[in-house]
Each structure stands twice: as C-alpha cells, then as structure tokens.
Amino acid sequence: MDFDFTAYLSQLLSLPSDQITIQILTGGFCNVTVRASFSHPVHLTRFGHPYSIPSIVLKYAPPFMATDPSQPLHVIRQHVEARALVLLDPLSESPLPVSSLLTKYPNFKIPRLIHHDIEHSILMMTDLGSSVTLDAWLAQEPAPQAEEVARIAKDLGQFLAEFVLATSEPNAEILARASNVAMVDQFYSDSVNLTKTVLTNQGIPDAEMLVRRIDEALRDAGQTNSCLGIVDLWAPNILINADNNICLIDWEYFGLSSASSELSMLVQSLHYILLRSDSTHDLILRTNAFTGTMLQNYALHAPPPSSQFKRHALLVYGRLSVNAVEFFKVNFDDGMRRRALDAGVRYLRAAGGSVDEMDLSMFDDDCGTLTSYEILYERGRAIKAAR
Are residues 98 and 169 in contact, defined by beta-carbon separation less than 8 angstroms? Predict the structure, then answer.
C-alpha cells in the first residue's frame, strides 16, 4: 500500500498521527479501502457531517490499477461512486426517488459520502461497521442460523426487485444525473475480451460466434429491461454486518444497467460457491437455500421475466461463468474449470442468435415447483454443483 493514510488524515484533520489507527479492509485490483479509527470521536462539520464519529472509511482510487501501477485506470470511477452515494442518500439535498427504499428498509445500508478529495483520489465515507462479504458470511463458522439465512435472502430478493421497479426505464434527466457510460463501456469491453480469450484458449469451436452474440447483446443492454443498478453486483459487494444488516458497497459503476444483468451477476457469483472444491455439503445446501429464497422473493415483487429478459440472462450468466475460468484460475482445479466452462458455454449457446432462436429446454422444470426466476439459473446451478 503506497498511500500513507495516516499522514493524509493527520494533515487533513489536524490530528496527531498516534491518534489514528489504519486497518486495511480490501486491497482489490483497482482500489485500496481502509478503516481509520480515532482514539477520540472526530468532528467533521467542516465537511457538512453533523456528527462526531469514532471511525471512517477511506477509498483510494489512483489513476492506475492498485495491484499493477503499469495499468492505467480512469479516476472517473471515483467521481461516479461519489455521485452515487449522494444520489442514493435520502438525507441529501436532491436524492433520486429510489433512495426512499433505504428509509423503507432500514436494515439496508449504503455508505454516506463525507468528503471527496479529487486532488488525492480519496473518498471519505461513513463506516458501516464490522462486516463480512455475503459469500464469506454464508461460509463462516459457526454457520449462520437457517432462519437468519432465510430472512436475509428474503429481504435481499424483495429489495432488489423493488429497486429495479423504482428505476425502470430511467428518463433522460435521471440518466444525466447518474451517467456511467465511460465506466460501463470499459467494464463490458474488458469482460467480452476476457470471454473471447477463455473460449479461444479452451478450443471452443464456435467461440467467435458466441463472442459476437455477447457483444451485440451488451450494445443493446440499455434498451431491454433497463434500470439503474450497481452494474458490478456480486456477492463480495454485499456485506453483512454485526447486526445482520445488508450493506451495499462499491458503487463506482452506478448508472444505466438492466434487471437481467443485475440479477444474473449476483446469482452467478453465489453459484461460484458451488464450484469450489473446499465447499462443504452444508455450505452448498445453505447457498442453494439462500439463492432459492432470494429468487422466490424477487419473483413475488417483480413481473415475470420477458423473453428478452430470459435471453439476456442466459448471455450474462454464460459470459460470467466462462470468465470465472480465468478470473479465479488460481483457485480452480480441473474439475471446477470444466464445470464453469460447461455451464457458461451451454448458456451462451442456448441464448441463440435472437429471442426466437432460444433453446427453451433450458427452462424446463422437471419438478414443477420452481419460480420463473429460479428456472433461469437452475441448469447452471446443477452443473456447477455436480461432483
């Protein structure tokens, strides 16, 4: 970690450095996030924050990849996140209407922006407290109680469905306020290139056609089941804190997305748990129960998926399953790699060249007990859970 958070805060807040303790929270590919704790609560009224607080969270986003300074990265990602935190804060001066969900559901939390230091590429945010990522929470020992797993899954499914409905088909004014074009274009471009690399290296004969299919769908993503979203909605961006509140973080892509993209990315990231060779039988059952309950409650609060939604879900889930082969290559054994690739390729092929060409057998429900949203991902779940 090259950035000296202690020296930075000492100067900014006029505090002795020995009154500041820094704890690294994440050291991700793009950013470095830390918790700064103070020996005495600090007044931050100069930044418009009305309370004295014992700790804050800082996110450093340099103009390059945090893990590889030779790779340039646009700092616009931090501007997008700073804006998102204000737009989604129901206490800000002009929040988006969807921010009212955070009042309706007080067990959902997002950080509040305290200060954006553009010169030093630092976001200063409220501290949501000690927490673990959703995937780590499901895997922790002692295991969370079944009732708590069901409650959090139910709440998450309902919240996500209502978020999509509240931001569905955003108008030009809202899109201007939540513009993310530069970030999303780069995000999708990198993702498609990774898919192409994996499919080609794995000798998939129709790789070129599948990649073209993905690329065309991504170009049309804002035209079908459009909404506002995190864009990068996966299990590590959902935290469960000590009070079992659900905390949503990493809003640096926030803006135009699609309901099928948001849901498919989250489900695929949960299915990664099923792939892992170190996942116990109990963890697999817990993950299946969580994902099923989340999708069931999503279905209760969202309209049935359209044909366009289904096709886009196939392409998103397939692309991300294929990309997992490379993204998690350090963690994958041959069996995990084979199952991820198999699920991904099957989903990409099933999407067909259009809605009319979809392989509808992917949506067969042999038991007749699944909701329409569960059916979308059931085949992928079964492939990845196989041993």
Answer: no
Report the C-alpha gap between 241 and 348 in whole angstroms. Answer: 36
Pairing of strands 238-241, 246-248: antiparallel
First to last CA, the chain: 39
Cα–Cα dist 239/236, whole Å? 7
This prediction has a pTM of: 0.95
The sign one gets for the Cα dihedral 184, 218, 247, 321 is negative
33 in Cβ contact with 61 (< 8 Å): no
Q: Would you list the DSSP string of 39-61?
A: EEEEE-GGGT--SEEEEEEEEE-
- Contacts (Cβ under 8 Å, ≥6 apart) of 228: 96, 98, 163, 167, 170, 174, 178, 254, 255, 256, 257
Cβ-based neighbour number of residue 152 at 10 Å: 23
Helix (H) or strand (E) segment spanning residue 148: helix 146-166
Nearest partner of 161 among 308, 302, 260, judged by Cα: 302
Helix/strand/coil for 38: strand
- What's the CA gap between 123 and 47, in Å, rounded? 12
Question: Could you give the CA distance from residue 229 to residue 309 in angstroms, rounded to a whole number?
Answer: 15
pLDDT by residue for the chain (387 residues), tens only, comes to 578 999 999 999 999 999 999 999 965 667 889 999 999 999 999 998 888 999 999 999 887 766 667 667 778 899 999 999 999 999 999 999 999 999 999 999 999 999 999 999 999 999 999 999 999 999 999 999 999 999 999 999 999 999 999 999 999 999 999 998 888 888 888 899 999 999 999 999 999 999 999 999 887 766 788 999 999 999 999 999 999 999 999 999 999 999 999 999 999 999 999 999 899 999 999 999 999 999 999 999 999 999 999 999 999 999 999 999 999 988 899 999 999 999 999 999 999 999 999 999 999 877 678 999 999 999 999 999 987
- Hey, what amino acid is at 373? Y
